[in-house]
Amino acid sequence: MNILQGLLHTGLNTILDVLPIVMIIFGFQFLYLKRPLPNPKKVLLGFAYVLVGLAFFLEGLELALFPLGKTMAAQLTDPGFLGIANADDIHWSDYYWVYAFAFAIGFATTVAEPALLAVAIKANEVSGGTISVWGLRTAVALGVALGLVLGTWRIVTGYPLHWFIISGYAIVVIQTIFAPRMIIALAYDSGGVTTSTVTVPLVAALGLGLASTIPGRSPLIDGFGLIAFASLFPMLTVMAHAQIAHWRSGKKPSLSLEN
Amino acid sequence: MREVHLPKSLKPVLDSLRDLMPIVLVVAAFQLLVIRQPLPNLLDLLLGILFVAIGLSLFIRGLEMGLFPIGQSMAQSFARKGSITWLLLFAFALGFGTTVAEPALIAIADEAARIAAAGNLIHQSTDAMQGYALGLRYTVALSVGVAIVLGVIRILKGWPIHWLIICGYICIIIITEFAPREIIGIAYDSGGVTTSTITVPLVTALGVGLASSIKGRNPMIDGFGLIAFASLTPIMFVMIYGMVVH
What is the pTM of this model? Predict the structure, then answer.
């Protein structure tokens, strides 16, 4: 019963969430382009789907992905599980299962991401074959995985988030100077593409769970930031991968395919 | 866009389940091999995962039936029709509207409000939490709108993308100095959250449509990059929101 009530409540709220985009699309369609709606029945049914789908999705997040991330964080940082009697003696390296979990989640969810496959195929065409589809997918997945490992390590140690992100930016800028020009826009976009709608809530819950169970950390200050790592690191690994592929191909200029 | 739609078909649900598969596999492997403790509320978890799969597939199906075809054809007609004022107005509205409805952002904003209430940053009432979450979402939506406008101007003028991105980085570094510590994490995360299910397809259609209708622009180089802007401006705007609210 509780779940049904939740669904209804979320369902009503989602109407407000979808309203702006509906108004914008219809507003521009009727007022500026002055065209009737093609296939109005199907469009309306589509909006009904969007509303119901959003309600189910948000309710499912509350039931599954948020608790799952927090439970995993709590279980993997439990002193009993780590086999450490005194909670004050814990060294950051004792949390190695946390890092392993972060790596596995980052790699697995990214490699299977359909949006990434499309990007990889495009990159393969643009680079004239020097960047292989699998190579790019692995580079991005490795980027997300390493990003999450470093991100969880930061939560464990409590260093300020912006140090890491700003250093990351510096590396991106340096890489931009040397990377083949065709790959730059793609690499920048790959950061945003990788973090899918399913991965974001789980990863956020993992970070918040870690920050609330690890002694000395506060969810308010340390809990967020994992998604930032997961979107920054693919830029680094994609440009690095393009650079390496470029050197390996014997400096074959990848710019020749510009048209 | 495919015209055939099969509401009864299980394919979209299977697609969403396939997206969830890696998470389920990794979690199951860790539970069985490493943690070896019973997972609490296993039934709720499984039901929730099913909800996520059903919800996501309905959501995307619905977008493909209505919003995407109209939005994409609209983006292309705006890209071809001359008026720059209307084009920029549309670009802003598109960025704003798609971001407000972005599912991952709704979830994260609610979570951020809960954390802020638990940490006594805001009142522990439903009203205050809803207000904070809504404020966060509208801030992010506003910033994505601005980002898309900037990105469209960049495509029109043909400015190189990396200079703008580097300027963005510098702005972020400066604002971080003045932002309250509690907002920095959420701000940096909001950059990655904004660009997913709804925003990417519609915004990419606008970018590629524009780049291919202007002479001397390469859709491959100039069409991309809107997403990159849309992941930078939220960081700045949310930090400013934090300075105002906290």
Answer: 0.85
Interchain contact, A184 vs B161, CB within 8 Å: yes
> Which domain does A27 fall in, by range?
1-64
In this predicted model, what pLDDT tens digit does every residue of B92-130 receive, in sequence order? 998 998 898 888 899 899 989 988 888 877 887 888 888
What does the pLDDT read at residue A199? 83
A59, A160: one domain: no
Å between B125 CA and nearest CA of chain A: 18
- Residues A41, A102: one domain? no
Mean pLDDT score across all residues of chain A: 83
CB burial string A148-183: b at 16+ within 10 A, e below: bbbbbbbbbeeebbbebbeebbeebeebbeebbebb
* Residues of chain B contacting A49 with CB distance shorter than 8 Å: 58-59, 61-62, 65
Least Cα distance to B108 among A200, A171, A145, A147 occurs for A200
pLDDT at res. B128: 87
Q: At a CB cut-off of 8 Å and minimum separation 6, what does B214 contact? A: B155, B156
